[in-house]
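re: the backbone from monday

yeah here it is again, tokenized this time
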């Protein structure tokens, strides 16, 4: 499992509880030995919590939520 896959796919799916059990295990093993992904996971989870709190009140459709998240991760990439 590489970092790119973890960040692009697994973190969001994990946050949405949409991850198969074997992938969750592989993901956790990776995060445990990869400080970069551990940090990104923390940040992504925080962002998702904030987005969720806001969209819960506004009842934003899922495609809008994904758009917000995509925008945030684009900005994150530019920071590197
Ligand atoms: Zn990693």
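seq for it, each position gets an aa:
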């Amino acid at each position: 499992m590489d970092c790119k896959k973890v960040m692009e796919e697994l973190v969001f799916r994990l946050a949405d509880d949409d991850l198969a059990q074997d992938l969750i295990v592989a993901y956790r093993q990776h995060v445990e030995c990869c400080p970069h992904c551990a940090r990104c996971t923390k940040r992504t989870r925080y962002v998702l919590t904030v987005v969720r709190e806001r969209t819960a009140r506004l009842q934003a459709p899922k495609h809008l939520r994904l758009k917000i998240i995509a925008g945030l991760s684009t900005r994150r990439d530019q920071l590197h």
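Residues 11 and 44 are 7 Å apart (CA to CA). The mean pLDDT is 78.
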